[in-house]
Write a structure and sequence with these properties.
By secondary structure, the chain is of the alpha+beta class. The protein has one domain (about 1-15, about 25-280). The chain is about 20% helix and about 40% strand. The strands form two sheets. Strands 9-10-11-12-13-1-2-3-6-7-8-14 form a twelve-stranded mixed β-sheet. Strands 4-5-15 form a three-stranded mixed β-sheet, covered by helices on one side. The longest helix has 18 residues, at about 250-270. The radius of gyration is 21 Å and the shape is globular.
C-alpha cells in the first residue's frame, strides 16, 4: 500500500507541474522484436533455405511504429510498409500467416474505452471495432530510467494460447487431418510494462493502456516493445483520426476469419493431382 501511495503522489506532482495545456500531444517511436527458436528437419529443408527463412522471420518481427497521442486518443501505425514475406524455390513454398503490414492503423480512445483497428489481411481490408480490454495492472515498486524519463514497473497475468512454431509437410496433411478441431494449449503469462508518469496519458503501444503514465516498454512473452524516441507538443500539430475504411467486424469475428484463412492456405499448398512439392506454414503465436 505504501508503494502505491508513493507512486500516486509522484504521479499527481508530475501531472500538475508538467501538463496544463488542453491541446497536449506527442509522438512516441517504438521498436518491436519477437524472439524465436526454430528447429527444422534437414531432410526437408536444406541449410541455404533455413538461412533464408530465419533471415526472413527475423526481419518480419523487427519493426518500427509511431504512436501519435493526446490526452484521450492515439493512433498506432507502422513506420514503413513491408511486403508479405515469402521464400520459395525448388518446389518449396514458405508463407507467414497473419502478417499485417504497414497499411494497418490502430486507433484508441481511452476515455470512451474503445478502438478501431484497420488491418490489411491478404489483400482485404478489415475494420475491427470493439471495446478496449480492461487490464488489471498491479503497480510494482521497482523503478528505472528509460532515456531521461523515470519509469515505474507494472504487471498483469493473462491466459494465452501456447506459442506454436510449426513446419508441417503438406504431403502428410491429408493423413493428419481430423474432423475434431484441435483444442489450443493454454498457458499463464505475466506481462511486464514500464510507464512514466512524467507523460500523464493512460496509453501505450499496440493495445497496452490503462496506466497512470505513457507506457515506454513492454515484455509480453517473446514480444518486446521499446520506446526509442519521444517528441512532445511538436511544432506541426498532428491529426488523430479513427480509420473508417474496411469491412466492419468485431475482434472475435476477425479472429475466426484469420483461423479460416490459415486453414485455406494449408490446403492451397497441399499437393494435388500428382503435383510434387511441399509447402511449409509458419505460425508463431505468443
Amino acid at each position: 500500500m505504501t508503494t502505491i501511495i508513493k507512486i500516486m503522489v509522484f504521479v499527481l506532482t508530475v501531472v500538475v507541474s508538467t501538463v496544463s495545456a488542453q491541446d497536449f500531444q506527442g509522438v512516441a517511436t517504438y521498436k518491436t522484436q519477437r524472439a524465436f527458436e526454430v528447429k527444422m528437419d534437414s531432410t526437408q529443408v536444406n541449410s541455404e533455405m533455413q538461412e533464408k527463412m530465419m533471415a526472413m522471420m527475423k526481419k518480419q518481427f523487427q519493426k518500427t511504429f509511431n504512436l501519435t497521442f493526446n490526452k484521450e486518443e492515439s493512433v498506432y501505425k507502422e513506420e514503413e510498409s513491408l511486403d508479405k514475406p515469402q521464400v520459395g524455390g525448388g518446389g518449396f513454398q514458405v508463407t507467414v500467416v497473419g502478417n499485417g503490414g504497414g497499411a494497418d492503423v490502430l486507433y484508441k480512445n481511452t476515455k470512451n474505452g474503445n478502438y478501431a483497428d484497420k488491418k490489411d489481411t491478404m489483400g482485404k481490408i478489415f475494420l475491427i471495432k470493439d471495446n478496449l480490454e480492461k487490464i488489471e495492472w498491479k503497480l510494482e515498486g521497482e523503478t528505472k530510467y528509460i532515456g531521461e524519463y523515470p519509469c515505474f514497473k507494472a504487471t498483469y497475468t493473462k491466459l494465452v494460447e501456447k506459442t506454436r512454431v510449426s513446419f508441417e509437410s503438406n504431403s502428410n496433411t491429408e493423413a493428419n487431418k481430423s474432423d475434431e478441431p484441435e483444442e489450443p494449449e493454454m498457458e499463464e503469462r505475466t506481462v511486464t510494462a514500464w510507464y512514466t508518469p512524467q507523460i500523464p496519458v493512460n496509453n501505450g503501444p499496440s493495445k497496452y493502456q490503462g496506466l497512470p503514465g505513457l507506457i515506454l516498454e513492454v515484455h509480453d512473452g517473446k514480444l518486446n516493445i521499446m520506446c526509442s524516441k519521444i517528441v512532445l507538443n511538436p511544432k506541426d500539430k498532428v491529426e488523430i483520426e479513427a480509420p473508417t475504411k474496411g469491412k466492419e467486424v468485431t475482434q472475435k469475428k476477425y479472429n475466426e476469419i484469420m483461423e479460416k484463412k490459415a486453414k485455406e492456405m494449408m490446403e492451397r499448398y497441399a499437393p494435388r493431382n500428382g503435383r510434387k512439392g511441399e509447402g511449409i506454414e509458419i505460425r508463431i503465436g505468443g
